[in-house]
Every structure is written in C-alpha cells, then in structure tokens.
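Predict structure. Chain length: 497.
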Amino acid sequence: MAIFLLLLLLLVSAVSGDEDAYIGVNIGTDLSDMPTPTEVVALLKAQRIRHVRLYDADQAMLLALAKTGIQVTVSVPNDQLLGIGQSNATAANWVARNIVAHVPATNITAIAVGSEVLTALPNAAPILVSALKFIHSALVASNLDDQIKVSTPHSSSIILDSFPPSQAFFNRSWDPVMVPLLKFLQSTGSYLMLNVYPYYDYMQSNGKIPLDYALFRPLPPNKEAVDANTLLHYTNVFDAVVDAAYFAMSYLNFTNIPIVVTESGWPSKGDSSEPDAIVDNANTYNSNLIKHVLNNTGTPKHPGIAVSTYIYELYNEDLRPGSDSEKNWGLFDANGIPVYTLHLTGADTVFANDTTNKTFCIAKQGADPKMLQAALDWACGPGKVDCSPLLLGHPCYEPDNVASHSTYAFNAYYQRMAKSPGTCDFKGVATITTSDPSHGSCIFPGSSGKNGTLINDTSLAPSSNDTSSVHPPRSYGTGSFTTSVMIGVLLTGAVFL
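Prediction complete.
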C-alpha cells in the first residue's frame, strides 16, 4: 500500500553570520524505471526542494535544472578521479564541459570530487588533493571559484575514538591526505563534506546504542550522553558524529572549517536481519533531522551554527546491489509517489502540496488489537467522531473487526482535524496512506466517492481532550562510529548525568 509523503523541505532559517541552514536531497539513478530529467525537476519543484546533489554531471539533468534556481552540487565519479587527479588539462576539460557550459543558467554551487575515496577507493587517495586543486584552478580560470566550492565527501568511519567527541581524531594513516586536504578547504573557503549514517551506527552497536538516541527522539536528562572532558550533552548520534569531526579537525589545528553533511537518512524497508529498517523509523529520523537542521540548533560544540544536510535520497533505487535496505532509502518511488508522510511543523517552514491532495489515516498493519480498541473507543467517544456508519446494518459495519472499524474512525477524526500534524497517530497505532480505504458503499471521509464528490464528515467536532497527542556514498555500509565508540557512552555510568 502506497504511503503518502507531505514533503516539506527547504526554506531556511538564519544562523550565525550570513550562513543559512538548508536541507538538500541526493538524486541517485539506480532505478529500473528512472524518471526523465524533466520529471525529476517537476518533482523537485512540486516539493519545493531547493538544493540537490548529483552523483555525476549528467548533461540532460543539468539542462533540466537550468533556470530553476535550484542549487546544484555536481560530482566527479570515482571512476573519473584518477584521470583528473593526474592531469590539470583533464580537470580543465571536465570543468569546461560540465560546469562552464551550464552556468549561470544552472545554479551550480559545489563540486564533490569523488565519494568516500579514502575508504572506498584508497588507491586513489594519493591524488585526491591534486584532483581538488586542479578542479579549483579551472574554476579560478573561469572566474567561478567564488561561486562554486570544491570538496570531497568522506565516510565518517575515518574518525576514530569518536566518543567522547572531544577525543576524536582522524585515522592517522590518512594524515598525509587529510592535512593538505584541510589546508585546501581552509584556503578556498570551502567545507568538509561528511556522510553521517546513525542507522549503521545503531545497527553495528549490537544494542549498545538506543534506537531513540539514533532517531533524535527525546531522551530524559539522565540518558543523555555527556562528554566528560567538555561536559557537553549529546541527545542524538548525528550531533555526536558531527562534533567528533569538528574535534578531529581541531586536533590537526584546523578550527574554522564548516561541515556540510552530504548524506544522511534511514531506510524504510529491510530484510529479516534489519528489523528497524521500517517506514516509521525512516519517517521519524528524516522528520527529526529536517527539524533539527532548520531550527538552528547546531551541535553542542557549535550551537547555532548551520550543519546543512542532504537527505539520502530522493528515490528508492531498486537496482542497488545488496540487502533490501540498500534499495529503500528514498522519499519517493520511481513514479513520484511518496513513501511516507514526514512529520513536519513550524512557522519557518513551507509545506509543499502532495501530487494527489488525498491522504487517509488508517490502522497500522499488525497493531495490537487491544490498543486499537482503546483508540477506537476514544475516537467514538471523547474524539467526537460520528461512528454510526459502523453499526450493524450500516455501510461500514463490514468487515466486522477492530482494525477495519478503527481505520474508519481514525480517518474521520484525521479529516475533520484538517489532517493536522499528530492527528493520525493514536498512540502509535495509526499511519497515513494515499490509498483510499473506501469499499463498497462505505465511503470514507476525504474520499471522492464513486461520483467524484469530496466527502467531508462535517458532523465531527474537534476534541478538547485529545489523548492521541503522542505525535509521533553511494558506498555505504561503514557506520559513522565503530561499535566500540558508543559502548563507552552507553555502558559507563560516568558519561551520563
């Protein structure tokens, strides 16, 4: 059953200085039925996505993005890195063909040179900095170096001893690369690109990292991780990883290089070995991530400082090799149908309209029948839902089971409350879908019905006693922390308050 996403992305909140925090989206293309560039851009516009990262410099995509104002990060794929890193002329030709030919019509703002090179393609590490310098020199020659930043995305697994963050350092074997790389980023006013995957940290911790800590869920003060050296409190894995990178850079005497997270997300489906790769967790992680980035929270080390982040990813990629989770990081399927509805609220954000403008609230598959019954009783009582269609002999009596009856009541409440955030939760036993649950003569509120007329149950009234208000690199597989990182956080009482 297709689950609908109301995707809010991207108008930004101001942060210190003249930097703005933003959320972007990665666009992978390993789909058996990849949408055309025009279709991709239409989806981006409809969802008001203003920042994207491409894993190459596809000409058709760059042309489709022209005159949209969307800020684009293009990439030098790993298989082109050796040639560019060994030849200034090759780099210049690449920039002429893929950058100069498209600006200013296409708003290219960054070039990602390779992807997780140190861990995914270590034989290319010796020429990585040369590749960045050659690309940058070509931009200078075209007077584009102020507009377009050059960097390279890293797996955060290059950070060792990541907790406490104040003791983190980069794998020392990479110092011959990291030191000149950081000098380059500093001298060109660029930023460190970092891929942060709390999902893998959680999976690899063997239960030592709490799921709530990975998903940004609120923690009681006595469960917050505390850096004993700085007394900084950490309420989520994402912030701890980012601060570990800040401290690792400072260990090498670089203290003024910002961080942009080029990949982060959570899979919505996994195989039997990945029980936490589910829609609800993907929804929770990405919703909380977006709010965290856009509300200027920053990190404990740098509060209020932007950590702009690109969600991995726009589409589910069915051609990705590996487990089911590898194929299910997307916000949309190939048809542009949202995988889930992000839980997003806030005055500083803009909600984009969905493509169908129809969503329904239904009982979650496999939900505890006792909890469903309790939620049904509330909806038909204090929730003031008109449940008369569920009575014997009425249109929605059949099928006569608690899941079916709950679905009707949940949806009636959700529609009457104008689909407000949190009104389709019911203590976690409800979820949102784009599939119309109407059947036979049982027409659900919000449905167009058989004659195409929108049905609204105006007999419903808002509840003043809403007890359902519990609101709810292309190479991955290496987590941001090693298992040992967080064992010290979560097993040792000294790091907790």
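Summary: The first helix runs from residue 37 to 46.
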